[in-house]
Design goal:
The chain has 234 residues and is of the alpha+beta class. It contains ten helices and four strands, in the order βαβαββαααααααα. Helices cover 51% and strands 8% of the residues. Helix 1 runs parallel beside helix 3 and helix 1 runs antiparallel to helix 6. The structure holds glutathione. The site of glutathione (GSH) has 13 residues, from helix 1 and helix 3.
Length: 234
């Protein structure tokens, strides 16, 4: 059994997709980041970084419980555990390279592009431009790589494609104001649509929908999500 610590946001979405693709038995545990539940000591014991996703595998290595945090670590852990969606072993260097490119580039720059265009105070044009343009540059790198290729790694659907899907799903926020945000990146758009068409995506999108996650963006939410805007806790 996997306990899956979840909030309906891009990094947990990648893991939801893997769990559904692999047909693993799991229990979704809501972590309402808008209420600050990611900062509770009980959750910090699972992810010291205080972010979702995280998992507990009650049947980890040696039959012992294992915690895994960070979406890319979880994807690699579960792919190795199940032997699914890792691609050809001969392509492992490519798989790790593209996973880390998404984990350290495409994902974080997309996140900051969304932050500066939607959450930060007005007037931070330099930051908005930098993060949006860097996100777009990462889109272009992946788009160029995908020319003439069906998937990111080798010739099969892997955790790299799932990882990219999680953030490409937010392209309309990353490229605020664009009606068809992936249009300039036709290979990326094709990949996104191919993943989007998989039955597991509909199931992954349904994860957590029965839970009443907080939607209001009030002072509690701002303090929970952006603690660096407030004085350090004593
Ligand atoms: N590198 C981490 C990033 C995790 C992350 O930023 N998660 C967001 C949701 S997508 C979160 O927990 N936000 C709440 C917060 O930052 O307090 C991963 O890939 O899992």
């Amino acid at each position: 059994m996997i306990r899956f610590y979840f909030h309906p946001t891009p990094n947990p979405a990648k893991v939801a997709l893997f769990l559904e693709e692999a047909g693993l038995d799991y229990e979704m545990v809501p972590v309402d980041t808008s209420k600050g539940e990611q900062h509770l000591p009980a959750f910090r014991a699972i992810n010291p970084n205080g972010k979702v996703p995280a998992i507990i595998d009650t049947d980890g290595p040696g039959g012992k419980e294992a915690r895994v945090f960070d979406s890319t670590a979880i994807l690699i852990y579960l792919a190795e555990k199940t032997g699914k969606f890792l691609g050809d072993p001969a392509d492992r260097a490519e798989l790790l390279s593209w996973l880390l490119f998404i984990a350290s580039g495409l994902g974080p720059f997309s996140g900051q592009a969304v932050h500066f265009q939607f959450a930060a105070p007005e007037g931070l044009a330099y930051a908005s431009n930098r993060y949006r343009r860097e996100a777009e540059r990462h889109y272009q790198v992946l788009d160029d790589h995908l020319a003439g290729r069906e998937f990111i790694v080798g010739d099969s659907y892997t955790i790299a494609d799932m990882s990219a899907w999680g953030w490409l799903d937010r392209a309309s926020r990353v490229r605020k104001g664009e009606a068809d945000p992936l249009a300039p990146f036709p290979h990326l758009k094709r990949l996104f649509q191919a993943v989007e068409g998989r039955p597991a995506v509909a199931r992954a999108r349904a994860v957590g929908t029965a839970h009443a996650f907080k939607k209001v963006n009030d002072e509690e939410t701002k303090r929970a999500l952006f603690p660096s805007n407030y004085p350090p806790a004593a």
